[in-house]
Description:
Layout: E1 7-8, E2 11-15, E3 27-28, E4 47-50, E5 55-58, E6 64-66, E7 69-70, H1 93-101, H2 106-111, E8 115-121, E9 126-137, E10 140-148, E11 153-155, E12 174-178, H3 181-189, E13 195-197, H4 210-214, E14 224-227, H5 233-246, E15 251-253, H6 262-269, H7 271-278, E16 282-283, H8 292-305, H9 316-319, E17 329-333, H10 340-355, E18 359-362, H11 369-381, H12 393-405, E19 406-408, H13 416-430, E20 434-437, H14 452-470, E21 473-478, H15 502-508, E22 511-518, E23 523-531, E24 542-547, E25 554-556
Parallel strand pairs: 12-13, 12-14, 14-15, 17-21, 17-22, 18-19, 18-20, 20-21
Antiparallel strand pairs: 1-2, 2-7, 3-4, 4-5, 5-6, 8-9, 9-10, 10-11, 15-16, 22-23, 23-24, 24-25
Helix pairs in contact: 6-7, 10-11, 11-12, 13-14, 14-15
Amino acid sequence: xxxxxxxxxxxxxxxxxxxxxxxxxxxxxxxxxxxxxxxxxxxxxxxxxxxxxxxxxxxxxxxxxxxxxxxxxxxxxxxxxxxxxxxxxxxxxxxxxxxxxxxxxxxxxxxxxxxxxxxxxxxxxxxxxxxxxxxxxxxxxxxxxxxxxxxxxxxxxxxxxxxxxxxxxxxxxxxxxxxxxxxxxxxxxxxxxxxxxxxxxxxxxxxxxxxxxxxxxxxxxxxxxxxxxxxxxxxxxxxxxxxxxxxxxxxxxxxxxxxxxxxxxxxxxxxxxxxxxxxxxxxxxxxxxxxxxxxxxxxxxxxxxxxxxxxxxxxxxxxxxxxxxxxxxxxxxxxxxxxxxxxxxxxxxxxxxxxxxxxxxxxxxxxxxxxxxxxxxxxxxxxxxxxxxxxxxxxxxxxxxxxxxxxxxxxxxxxxxxxxxxxxxxxxxxxxxxxxxxxxxxxxxxxxxxxxxxxxxxxxxxxxxxxxxxxxxxxxxxxxxxxxxxxxxxxxxxxxxxxxxxxxxxxxxxxxxxxxxxxxxxxxxxxxxxxxxxxxxxxxxxxxxxxxxxxxxxxxxxxxxxxxxxxxxx
Length: 570
Protein backbone atom coordinates (compact mmCIF):
# COMPACT_ATOMS: atom_id res chain seq x y z
CA UNK A 1 0.00 0.00 0.00
CA UNK A 2 1.32 3.40 -0.97
CA UNK A 3 0.60 6.42 1.19
CA UNK A 4 0.73 9.82 -0.47
CA UNK A 5 1.30 12.98 1.55
CA UNK A 6 0.30 11.14 4.73
CA UNK A 7 -3.35 11.20 3.65
CA UNK A 8 -5.90 8.49 3.01
CA UNK A 9 -9.11 9.39 1.30
CA UNK A 10 -8.48 13.07 1.87
CA UNK A 11 -8.05 12.71 5.62
CA UNK A 12 -4.72 13.51 7.24
CA UNK A 13 -3.02 10.67 9.11
CA UNK A 14 -1.31 11.29 12.40
CA UNK A 15 0.33 7.84 12.47
CA UNK A 16 0.05 5.33 9.64
CA UNK A 17 -0.15 1.62 10.59
CA UNK A 18 0.30 2.42 14.26
CA UNK A 19 0.66 -1.25 15.24
CA UNK A 20 3.34 -2.10 12.67
CA UNK A 21 1.31 -4.79 10.92
CA UNK A 22 1.93 -6.31 7.48
CA UNK A 23 0.88 -3.45 5.26
CA UNK A 24 -1.68 -4.33 2.60
CA UNK A 25 -2.45 -7.79 3.96
CA UNK A 26 -6.12 -8.52 4.63
CA UNK A 27 -5.45 -11.02 7.41
CA UNK A 28 -2.92 -11.21 10.21
CA UNK A 29 -2.35 -11.13 13.93
CA UNK A 30 -4.36 -9.07 16.39
CA UNK A 31 -2.19 -6.42 18.11
CA UNK A 32 -4.52 -6.47 21.11
CA UNK A 33 -4.59 -10.13 22.07
CA UNK A 34 -1.87 -12.02 20.14
CA UNK A 35 0.88 -11.16 22.65
CA UNK A 36 -1.22 -12.64 25.46
CA UNK A 37 -1.56 -16.02 23.75
CA UNK A 38 0.79 -19.00 24.01
CA UNK A 39 4.09 -18.53 22.23
CA UNK A 40 3.13 -21.16 19.63
CA UNK A 41 -0.10 -19.33 18.86
CA UNK A 42 1.11 -15.72 18.81
CA UNK A 43 1.49 -15.64 15.02
CA UNK A 44 -1.93 -17.11 14.25
CA UNK A 45 -3.90 -14.99 11.77
CA UNK A 46 -6.93 -14.21 13.91
CA UNK A 47 -7.69 -10.72 12.59
CA UNK A 48 -9.01 -9.10 9.41
CA UNK A 49 -7.56 -5.77 8.19
CA UNK A 50 -9.64 -3.25 6.24
CA UNK A 51 -7.06 -0.73 5.05
CA UNK A 52 -9.68 1.32 3.21
CA UNK A 53 -11.52 2.07 6.45
CA UNK A 54 -8.41 1.91 8.60
CA UNK A 55 -10.07 -0.65 10.84
CA UNK A 56 -9.15 -4.14 12.04
CA UNK A 57 -11.40 -6.82 13.56
CA UNK A 58 -10.19 -9.74 15.71
CA UNK A 59 -12.18 -12.98 15.55
CA UNK A 60 -10.50 -14.32 18.69
CA UNK A 61 -11.09 -11.50 21.22
CA UNK A 62 -14.05 -10.03 19.27
CA UNK A 63 -12.55 -6.54 19.38
CA UNK A 64 -12.07 -3.84 16.76
CA UNK A 65 -9.00 -1.60 16.51
CA UNK A 66 -7.82 1.32 14.38
CA UNK A 67 -5.00 0.64 11.95
CA UNK A 68 -4.12 4.34 11.74
CA UNK A 69 -4.59 7.41 13.88
CA UNK A 70 -5.97 10.57 12.31
CA UNK A 71 -5.91 14.25 13.03
CA UNK A 72 -9.33 15.27 14.39
CA UNK A 73 -11.13 18.19 12.83
CA UNK A 74 -12.76 20.76 15.02
CA UNK A 75 -16.50 21.31 14.86
CA UNK A 76 -17.56 23.97 12.40
CA UNK A 77 -20.05 26.51 13.72
CA UNK A 78 -22.71 27.37 11.18
CA UNK A 79 -22.76 31.04 10.24
CA UNK A 80 -26.11 32.64 9.39
CA UNK A 81 -26.87 35.74 7.36
CA UNK A 82 -28.33 38.65 9.31
CA UNK A 83 -31.16 40.84 8.00
CA UNK A 84 -30.25 44.52 7.91
CA UNK A 85 -30.99 46.40 11.11
CA UNK A 86 -34.27 48.22 10.86
CA UNK A 87 -36.13 50.89 12.67
CA UNK A 88 -39.59 49.53 13.30
CA UNK A 89 -42.08 52.06 12.01
CA UNK A 90 -45.81 51.98 12.08
CA UNK A 91 -47.62 50.34 9.21
CA UNK A 92 -49.57 52.62 6.93
CA UNK A 93 -53.33 53.01 7.05
CA UNK A 94 -53.93 50.60 4.16
CA UNK A 95 -51.97 47.77 5.86
CA UNK A 96 -53.58 48.49 9.22
CA UNK A 97 -56.99 48.32 7.58
CA UNK A 98 -56.14 44.96 5.98
CA UNK A 99 -55.12 43.49 9.33
CA UNK A 100 -58.30 44.93 10.83
CA UNK A 101 -60.35 42.99 8.28
CA UNK A 102 -58.65 39.83 9.65
CA UNK A 103 -59.58 40.71 13.23
CA UNK A 104 -56.10 42.00 14.15
CA UNK A 105 -55.84 45.33 16.01
CA UNK A 106 -53.13 47.97 15.72
CA UNK A 107 -52.10 47.17 19.31
CA UNK A 108 -51.24 43.61 18.29
CA UNK A 109 -49.21 44.90 15.33
CA UNK A 110 -47.26 47.14 17.71
CA UNK A 111 -46.79 44.37 20.28
CA UNK A 112 -45.42 41.96 17.67
CA UNK A 113 -43.32 44.67 15.93
CA UNK A 114 -44.84 44.01 12.53
CA UNK A 115 -43.74 46.46 9.84
CA UNK A 116 -44.08 46.97 6.09
CA UNK A 117 -41.93 48.02 3.16
CA UNK A 118 -40.78 47.29 -0.38
CA UNK A 119 -39.08 43.93 -1.02
CA UNK A 120 -38.09 42.02 -4.16
CA UNK A 121 -40.16 38.83 -4.38
CA UNK A 122 -38.93 35.88 -6.45
CA UNK A 123 -42.48 34.70 -7.20
CA UNK A 124 -43.25 37.87 -9.15
CA UNK A 125 -39.71 38.82 -10.17
CA UNK A 126 -40.11 42.43 -9.03
CA UNK A 127 -40.29 44.74 -6.01
CA UNK A 128 -43.54 44.50 -4.08
CA UNK A 129 -45.13 46.23 -1.13
CA UNK A 130 -44.80 43.64 1.64
CA UNK A 131 -45.69 42.99 5.26
CA UNK A 132 -42.64 42.20 7.40
CA UNK A 133 -43.01 39.65 10.20
CA UNK A 134 -39.83 40.32 12.14
CA UNK A 135 -38.17 37.41 13.98
CA UNK A 136 -36.38 38.58 17.12
CA UNK A 137 -34.29 36.81 19.73
CA UNK A 138 -33.98 39.37 22.46
CA UNK A 139 -33.10 42.66 20.78
CA UNK A 140 -31.49 40.96 17.78
CA UNK A 141 -33.32 40.66 14.48
CA UNK A 142 -32.42 37.15 13.18
CA UNK A 143 -34.90 36.68 10.32
CA UNK A 144 -37.80 38.28 8.45
CA UNK A 145 -40.83 36.71 6.77
CA UNK A 146 -42.08 38.82 3.85
CA UNK A 147 -45.65 38.59 2.54
CA UNK A 148 -47.02 40.42 -0.48
CA UNK A 149 -50.61 41.11 -1.53
CA UNK A 150 -50.76 37.95 -3.63
CA UNK A 151 -50.00 35.77 -0.59
CA UNK A 152 -46.44 35.07 -1.70
CA UNK A 153 -43.93 34.48 1.10
CA UNK A 154 -40.19 34.37 1.56
CA UNK A 155 -37.75 34.26 4.48
CA UNK A 156 -34.54 36.28 4.51
CA UNK A 157 -32.05 34.18 2.52
CA UNK A 158 -29.47 32.35 4.64
CA UNK A 159 -30.87 33.64 7.94
CA UNK A 160 -31.33 31.49 11.04
CA UNK A 161 -34.68 29.69 11.29
CA UNK A 162 -36.36 30.00 14.67
CA UNK A 163 -39.93 30.06 15.94
CA UNK A 164 -41.68 33.36 15.28
CA UNK A 165 -42.32 35.32 18.51
CA UNK A 166 -40.05 32.98 20.49
CA UNK A 167 -39.34 35.61 23.16
CA UNK A 168 -42.99 35.45 24.24
CA UNK A 169 -42.35 32.05 25.85
CA UNK A 170 -39.90 33.38 28.44
CA UNK A 171 -41.30 33.24 31.98
CA UNK A 172 -44.28 31.04 31.03
CA UNK A 173 -44.71 27.34 31.83
CA UNK A 174 -47.12 26.95 28.91
CA UNK A 175 -46.59 27.72 25.23
CA UNK A 176 -48.87 27.46 22.20
CA UNK A 177 -47.53 26.47 18.79
CA UNK A 178 -49.34 27.51 15.60
CA UNK A 179 -48.58 27.19 11.90
CA UNK A 180 -48.31 30.78 10.69
CA UNK A 181 -47.59 34.34 11.73
CA UNK A 182 -51.22 35.38 11.19
CA UNK A 183 -52.28 32.71 13.68
CA UNK A 184 -49.83 34.18 16.20
CA UNK A 185 -51.56 37.53 15.68
CA UNK A 186 -54.98 35.92 16.20
CA UNK A 187 -53.94 34.08 19.37
CA UNK A 188 -52.27 37.23 20.72
CA UNK A 189 -55.48 39.14 19.96
CA UNK A 190 -57.42 36.65 22.10
CA UNK A 191 -55.29 37.54 25.11
CA UNK A 192 -52.98 34.54 25.06
CA UNK A 193 -49.41 35.92 24.87
CA UNK A 194 -47.09 32.87 25.00
CA UNK A 195 -47.53 31.76 21.39
CA UNK A 196 -45.05 30.93 18.60
CA UNK A 197 -45.27 29.90 14.97
CA UNK A 198 -43.16 27.57 12.89
CA UNK A 199 -41.26 29.69 10.35
CA UNK A 200 -42.08 27.81 7.17
CA UNK A 201 -45.52 26.32 7.65
CA UNK A 202 -46.21 22.61 7.34
CA UNK A 203 -45.27 20.27 4.53
CA UNK A 204 -46.69 16.81 4.15
CA UNK A 205 -43.50 14.82 3.63
CA UNK A 206 -40.94 16.69 5.71
CA UNK A 207 -40.02 16.38 9.38
CA UNK A 208 -36.99 18.65 9.13
CA UNK A 209 -37.77 20.97 12.05
CA UNK A 210 -34.31 22.55 12.07
CA UNK A 211 -35.72 25.64 13.77
CA UNK A 212 -36.58 23.53 16.84
CA UNK A 213 -32.94 22.71 17.45
CA UNK A 214 -32.02 26.39 17.10
CA UNK A 215 -34.20 27.39 20.04
CA UNK A 216 -34.84 24.16 21.95
CA UNK A 217 -33.70 25.75 25.21
CA UNK A 218 -36.86 27.86 25.29
CA UNK A 219 -38.93 24.67 25.75
CA UNK A 220 -36.88 22.90 28.41
CA UNK A 221 -38.89 24.31 31.34
CA UNK A 222 -42.35 24.04 29.79
CA UNK A 223 -44.99 22.00 31.59
CA UNK A 224 -47.61 22.23 28.86
CA UNK A 225 -47.33 22.61 25.08
CA UNK A 226 -50.56 23.41 23.23
CA UNK A 227 -50.49 22.56 19.52
CA UNK A 228 -52.98 24.60 17.47
CA UNK A 229 -51.96 24.02 13.85
CA UNK A 230 -54.04 23.79 10.68
CA UNK A 231 -56.52 20.95 10.36
CA UNK A 232 -55.40 19.91 6.85
CA UNK A 233 -53.26 16.85 6.12
CA UNK A 234 -49.97 18.75 6.28
CA UNK A 235 -50.98 20.35 9.59
CA UNK A 236 -51.81 16.96 11.10
CA UNK A 237 -48.41 15.66 9.96
CA UNK A 238 -46.73 18.62 11.69
CA UNK A 239 -48.82 18.02 14.82
CA UNK A 240 -47.76 14.36 14.89
CA UNK A 241 -44.10 15.26 14.54
CA UNK A 242 -44.25 17.92 17.29
CA UNK A 243 -45.87 15.41 19.65
CA UNK A 244 -43.14 12.90 18.84
CA UNK A 245 -40.43 15.48 19.55
CA UNK A 246 -41.82 16.93 22.78
CA UNK A 247 -43.48 13.78 24.14
CA UNK A 248 -47.21 13.06 24.40
CA UNK A 249 -47.21 13.68 28.14
CA UNK A 250 -46.58 17.44 27.57
CA UNK A 251 -48.84 18.03 24.59
CA UNK A 252 -52.43 19.29 24.27
CA UNK A 253 -54.41 19.70 21.02
CA UNK A 254 -56.77 22.49 19.92
CA UNK A 255 -59.54 21.61 17.47
CA UNK A 256 -60.86 24.65 15.55
CA UNK A 257 -64.08 22.83 14.63
CA UNK A 258 -65.42 24.22 11.35
CA UNK A 259 -62.34 26.39 10.69
CA UNK A 260 -58.91 25.62 9.28
CA UNK A 261 -56.86 27.66 11.74
CA UNK A 262 -56.90 30.26 14.52
CA UNK A 263 -57.15 33.31 12.28
CA UNK A 264 -60.10 31.91 10.34
CA UNK A 265 -61.80 31.11 13.66
CA UNK A 266 -61.22 34.70 14.84
CA UNK A 267 -62.71 36.15 11.64
CA UNK A 268 -65.72 33.84 11.67
CA UNK A 269 -66.57 33.72 15.38
CA UNK A 270 -64.87 36.70 17.05
CA UNK A 271 -62.30 37.28 19.78
CA UNK A 272 -64.30 35.96 22.76
CA UNK A 273 -65.24 32.77 20.93
CA UNK A 274 -61.58 32.16 20.01
CA UNK A 275 -60.53 32.69 23.63
CA UNK A 276 -63.14 30.16 24.71
CA UNK A 277 -62.09 27.68 22.01
CA UNK A 278 -58.49 27.72 23.24
CA UNK A 279 -59.65 26.58 26.68
CA UNK A 280 -61.09 23.40 25.13
CA UNK A 281 -57.63 22.02 24.30
CA UNK A 282 -57.50 18.30 25.03
CA UNK A 283 -54.50 16.37 26.23
CA UNK A 284 -52.98 13.86 23.85
CA UNK A 285 -54.40 10.41 24.73
CA UNK A 286 -52.55 8.45 27.41
CA UNK A 287 -49.75 6.20 26.26
CA UNK A 288 -50.52 2.50 26.26
CA UNK A 289 -54.27 3.11 26.60
CA UNK A 290 -56.19 2.87 23.34
CA UNK A 291 -59.89 3.40 22.71
CA UNK A 292 -61.83 2.65 19.55
CA UNK A 293 -62.17 6.38 18.93
CA UNK A 294 -58.36 6.74 19.00
CA UNK A 295 -57.88 4.21 16.22
CA UNK A 296 -61.10 4.52 14.23
CA UNK A 297 -59.35 6.45 11.44
CA UNK A 298 -56.76 3.65 11.18
CA UNK A 299 -59.54 1.06 11.00
CA UNK A 300 -61.33 3.00 8.28
CA UNK A 301 -58.06 3.32 6.34
CA UNK A 302 -57.48 -0.45 6.65
CA UNK A 303 -61.01 -1.28 5.50
CA UNK A 304 -60.57 1.00 2.47
CA UNK A 305 -57.00 0.18 1.44
CA UNK A 306 -55.78 -2.91 3.32
CA UNK A 307 -52.35 -3.03 4.96
CA UNK A 308 -50.27 0.12 4.97
CA UNK A 309 -47.31 -0.10 2.59
CA UNK A 310 -43.99 -0.61 4.35
CA UNK A 311 -40.96 1.65 4.01
CA UNK A 312 -38.38 0.61 1.39
CA UNK A 313 -34.75 1.50 0.60
CA UNK A 314 -34.94 2.16 -3.13
CA UNK A 315 -33.20 -1.01 -4.41
CA UNK A 316 -35.86 -2.84 -6.39
CA UNK A 317 -34.67 -6.41 -5.83
CA UNK A 318 -34.50 -5.89 -2.05
CA UNK A 319 -37.71 -3.85 -1.94
CA UNK A 320 -39.51 -6.77 -3.60
CA UNK A 321 -38.75 -9.01 -0.60
CA UNK A 322 -38.57 -6.66 2.40
CA UNK A 323 -40.04 -3.49 3.86
CA UNK A 324 -40.67 -2.23 7.38
CA UNK A 325 -42.61 0.13 9.60
CA UNK A 326 -41.24 2.58 12.15
CA UNK A 327 -41.69 1.69 15.82
CA UNK A 328 -39.92 -1.62 15.12
CA UNK A 329 -36.36 -2.96 15.09
CA UNK A 330 -34.36 -4.97 12.57
CA UNK A 331 -31.55 -7.38 13.48
CA UNK A 332 -28.81 -7.58 10.83
CA UNK A 333 -26.27 -10.39 11.13
CA UNK A 334 -23.50 -11.99 9.11
CA UNK A 335 -19.94 -13.28 9.49
CA UNK A 336 -17.15 -10.68 9.99
CA UNK A 337 -16.28 -8.59 6.91
CA UNK A 338 -19.45 -9.66 5.12
CA UNK A 339 -20.61 -6.07 4.60
CA UNK A 340 -23.24 -5.79 7.37
CA UNK A 341 -22.43 -2.22 8.36
CA UNK A 342 -22.04 -1.17 4.74
CA UNK A 343 -25.46 -2.57 3.85
CA UNK A 344 -27.02 -0.84 6.85
CA UNK A 345 -25.52 2.42 5.56
CA UNK A 346 -27.12 1.67 2.19
CA UNK A 347 -30.47 1.18 3.92
CA UNK A 348 -30.45 4.46 5.84
CA UNK A 349 -29.22 6.42 2.80
CA UNK A 350 -32.18 4.94 0.93
CA UNK A 351 -34.62 5.88 3.69
CA UNK A 352 -33.26 9.41 3.61
CA UNK A 353 -33.56 9.69 -0.16
CA UNK A 354 -37.12 8.32 -0.26
CA UNK A 355 -38.61 9.69 2.98
CA UNK A 356 -36.20 12.40 4.25
CA UNK A 357 -35.44 10.28 7.33
CA UNK A 358 -32.61 11.35 9.57
CA UNK A 359 -30.41 8.70 11.18
CA UNK A 360 -28.22 8.55 14.28
CA UNK A 361 -25.39 6.02 14.57
CA UNK A 362 -24.01 4.49 17.74
CA UNK A 363 -21.26 2.58 15.92
CA UNK A 364 -18.09 1.86 17.90
CA UNK A 365 -16.82 -0.30 15.04
CA UNK A 366 -17.33 2.45 12.47
CA UNK A 367 -14.43 4.47 13.74
CA UNK A 368 -12.88 6.92 13.09
CA UNK A 369 -16.10 8.85 12.64
CA UNK A 370 -15.00 10.95 9.68
CA UNK A 371 -14.34 7.82 7.63
CA UNK A 372 -17.86 6.62 8.37
CA UNK A 373 -19.17 10.01 7.26
CA UNK A 374 -17.06 9.67 4.12
CA UNK A 375 -18.63 6.27 3.34
CA UNK A 376 -22.07 7.85 3.49
CA UNK A 377 -20.84 10.72 1.35
CA UNK A 378 -19.65 8.27 -1.34
CA UNK A 379 -23.02 6.51 -1.46
CA UNK A 380 -24.88 9.80 -1.86
CA UNK A 381 -22.27 11.14 -4.31
CA UNK A 382 -22.46 8.00 -6.42
CA UNK A 383 -18.68 7.75 -6.65
CA UNK A 384 -15.40 8.74 -5.06
CA UNK A 385 -14.87 12.48 -4.55
CA UNK A 386 -11.32 13.58 -5.32
CA UNK A 387 -9.17 16.47 -4.16
CA UNK A 388 -10.28 18.57 -7.13
CA UNK A 389 -13.92 18.09 -6.04
CA UNK A 390 -13.37 19.76 -2.65
CA UNK A 391 -15.44 22.95 -2.23
CA UNK A 392 -17.18 22.47 -5.58
CA UNK A 393 -20.93 22.84 -5.82
CA UNK A 394 -21.49 19.09 -5.69
CA UNK A 395 -19.16 18.74 -2.69
CA UNK A 396 -21.09 21.40 -0.81
CA UNK A 397 -24.43 19.86 -1.79
CA UNK A 398 -23.51 16.33 -0.70
CA UNK A 399 -21.72 17.42 2.48
CA UNK A 400 -24.80 19.42 3.45
CA UNK A 401 -26.99 16.32 2.97
CA UNK A 402 -24.70 14.31 5.27
CA UNK A 403 -24.46 17.11 7.82
CA UNK A 404 -28.23 17.67 7.96
CA UNK A 405 -29.34 14.04 8.01
CA UNK A 406 -26.75 11.81 9.71
CA UNK A 407 -25.51 12.11 13.29
CA UNK A 408 -22.72 10.15 14.96
CA UNK A 409 -22.67 9.38 18.68
CA UNK A 410 -18.96 9.47 19.47
CA UNK A 411 -18.08 8.52 23.05
CA UNK A 412 -15.31 6.53 24.75
CA UNK A 413 -17.63 3.92 26.25
CA UNK A 414 -20.91 2.88 24.66
CA UNK A 415 -23.78 1.91 26.94
CA UNK A 416 -27.26 0.88 25.79
CA UNK A 417 -29.22 2.99 28.27
CA UNK A 418 -27.11 6.07 27.51
CA UNK A 419 -27.42 5.48 23.76
CA UNK A 420 -31.21 5.30 24.03
CA UNK A 421 -31.25 8.52 26.08
CA UNK A 422 -29.08 10.18 23.44
CA UNK A 423 -31.39 8.76 20.77
CA UNK A 424 -34.39 10.33 22.53
CA UNK A 425 -32.55 13.66 22.63
CA UNK A 426 -31.81 13.40 18.91
CA UNK A 427 -35.49 12.67 18.21
CA UNK A 428 -36.36 15.88 20.02
CA UNK A 429 -33.61 18.09 18.64
CA UNK A 430 -32.97 16.67 15.18
CA UNK A 431 -36.06 14.59 14.39
CA UNK A 432 -34.27 11.31 13.70
CA UNK A 433 -36.43 8.45 12.42
CA UNK A 434 -33.74 5.77 12.53
CA UNK A 435 -31.19 4.69 15.17
CA UNK A 436 -28.36 2.28 14.32
CA UNK A 437 -26.62 0.22 17.04
CA UNK A 438 -23.52 -1.36 15.53
CA UNK A 439 -22.64 -3.83 16.97
CA UNK A 440 -24.83 -4.75 19.93
CA UNK A 441 -22.05 -6.56 21.86
CA UNK A 442 -20.02 -3.31 22.03
CA UNK A 443 -23.04 -1.45 23.41
CA UNK A 444 -23.60 -3.21 26.72
CA UNK A 445 -26.62 -2.86 29.00
CA UNK A 446 -26.40 -1.93 32.68
CA UNK A 447 -28.21 -5.17 33.50
CA UNK A 448 -25.83 -7.57 35.27
CA UNK A 449 -27.78 -10.73 34.54
CA UNK A 450 -25.92 -14.03 34.44
CA UNK A 451 -28.52 -15.78 32.28
CA UNK A 452 -27.69 -14.80 28.68
CA UNK A 453 -31.24 -15.45 27.48
CA UNK A 454 -32.77 -13.22 30.16
CA UNK A 455 -30.15 -10.52 29.49
CA UNK A 456 -30.86 -10.63 25.75
CA UNK A 457 -34.62 -10.39 26.21
CA UNK A 458 -34.25 -7.41 28.60
CA UNK A 459 -31.82 -5.77 26.16
CA UNK A 460 -34.19 -6.12 23.21
CA UNK A 461 -37.21 -5.09 25.29
CA UNK A 462 -35.55 -1.74 26.08
CA UNK A 463 -34.94 -1.20 22.38
CA UNK A 464 -38.54 -2.08 21.53
CA UNK A 465 -39.89 0.37 24.13
CA UNK A 466 -37.69 3.14 22.68
CA UNK A 467 -38.73 2.34 19.08
CA UNK A 468 -42.44 2.41 19.91
CA UNK A 469 -42.34 5.49 22.14
CA UNK A 470 -40.53 7.66 19.61
CA UNK A 471 -41.82 6.00 16.42
CA UNK A 472 -38.25 5.24 15.35
CA UNK A 473 -36.83 2.36 13.32
CA UNK A 474 -33.90 0.78 15.18
CA UNK A 475 -31.35 -1.30 13.26
CA UNK A 476 -29.12 -3.58 15.35
CA UNK A 477 -26.00 -5.17 13.90
CA UNK A 478 -25.30 -8.43 15.74
CA UNK A 479 -22.24 -10.61 15.12
CA UNK A 480 -22.71 -14.37 15.28
CA UNK A 481 -20.66 -16.08 17.99
CA UNK A 482 -21.10 -19.61 16.69
CA UNK A 483 -19.74 -20.09 13.18
CA UNK A 484 -19.07 -23.37 11.40
CA UNK A 485 -17.23 -24.39 8.25
CA UNK A 486 -18.70 -26.83 5.79
CA UNK A 487 -16.87 -29.80 4.37
CA UNK A 488 -15.51 -27.55 1.65
CA UNK A 489 -13.91 -25.31 4.28
CA UNK A 490 -16.21 -22.38 3.46
CA UNK A 491 -17.86 -20.59 6.38
CA UNK A 492 -21.54 -21.49 6.59
CA UNK A 493 -24.17 -18.80 6.54
CA UNK A 494 -25.20 -17.90 10.08
CA UNK A 495 -28.79 -17.53 11.24
CA UNK A 496 -30.24 -15.47 14.08
CA UNK A 497 -29.75 -18.54 16.28
CA UNK A 498 -25.98 -18.14 15.86
CA UNK A 499 -26.07 -14.84 17.78
CA UNK A 500 -25.35 -15.12 21.50
CA UNK A 501 -28.75 -15.68 23.09
CA UNK A 502 -29.97 -16.79 19.67
CA UNK A 503 -33.49 -17.98 20.45
CA UNK A 504 -34.38 -14.67 22.05
CA UNK A 505 -33.07 -12.76 19.03
CA UNK A 506 -35.34 -14.66 16.70
CA UNK A 507 -38.38 -14.43 18.96
CA UNK A 508 -38.05 -10.74 19.90
CA UNK A 509 -36.87 -9.19 16.62
CA UNK A 510 -39.51 -7.81 14.31
CA UNK A 511 -37.28 -8.58 11.35
CA UNK A 512 -33.98 -10.33 10.67
CA UNK A 513 -31.62 -9.84 7.72
CA UNK A 514 -28.48 -11.79 6.81
CA UNK A 515 -25.75 -10.04 4.83
CA UNK A 516 -23.37 -12.57 3.28
CA UNK A 517 -20.45 -12.08 0.89
CA UNK A 518 -19.49 -14.55 -1.84
CA UNK A 519 -15.79 -13.91 -2.35
CA UNK A 520 -15.50 -16.14 -5.41
CA UNK A 521 -18.35 -14.51 -7.31
CA UNK A 522 -17.59 -11.07 -5.80
CA UNK A 523 -21.25 -10.60 -4.84
CA UNK A 524 -23.18 -9.83 -1.67
CA UNK A 525 -26.60 -11.13 -0.80
CA UNK A 526 -29.21 -9.86 1.64
CA UNK A 527 -31.46 -12.65 2.89
CA UNK A 528 -34.68 -12.19 4.88
CA UNK A 529 -34.30 -14.37 7.98
CA UNK A 530 -37.51 -13.16 9.59
CA UNK A 531 -40.30 -10.74 8.80
CA UNK A 532 -42.95 -10.27 11.45
CA UNK A 533 -45.82 -9.27 9.20
CA UNK A 534 -46.48 -11.18 5.99
CA UNK A 535 -47.37 -8.04 4.07
CA UNK A 536 -43.89 -6.61 4.69
CA UNK A 537 -41.74 -9.31 3.16
CA UNK A 538 -40.95 -12.91 2.37
CA UNK A 539 -39.09 -15.17 4.79
CA UNK A 540 -36.10 -16.86 3.15
CA UNK A 541 -36.11 -14.59 0.09
CA UNK A 542 -32.77 -13.26 -1.20
CA UNK A 543 -31.53 -10.21 -3.08
CA UNK A 544 -28.08 -10.35 -4.72
CA UNK A 545 -25.78 -7.39 -5.34
CA UNK A 546 -22.47 -6.34 -6.75
CA UNK A 547 -20.55 -3.98 -4.45
CA UNK A 548 -19.20 -0.92 -6.21
CA UNK A 549 -15.72 -0.12 -4.86
CA UNK A 550 -15.87 3.46 -6.03
CA UNK A 551 -19.18 4.56 -4.52
CA UNK A 552 -19.50 1.88 -1.85
CA UNK A 553 -23.01 1.29 -3.21
CA UNK A 554 -24.87 -1.98 -3.66
CA UNK A 555 -25.85 -2.58 -7.27
CA UNK A 556 -28.48 -5.26 -8.10
CA UNK A 557 -26.67 -8.26 -9.57
CA UNK A 558 -28.59 -8.06 -12.85
CA UNK A 559 -26.94 -4.68 -13.37
CA UNK A 560 -23.18 -5.27 -13.83
CA UNK A 561 -22.39 -1.55 -14.00
CA UNK A 562 -19.91 -1.48 -11.11
CA UNK A 563 -16.47 0.00 -10.70
CA UNK A 564 -13.46 -2.18 -9.93
CA UNK A 565 -10.95 0.64 -10.21
CA UNK A 566 -8.35 0.85 -7.44
CA UNK A 567 -9.02 3.28 -4.61
CA UNK A 568 -6.87 6.43 -4.50
CA UNK A 569 -4.93 5.12 -1.52
CA UNK A 570 -4.16 1.71 -3.07
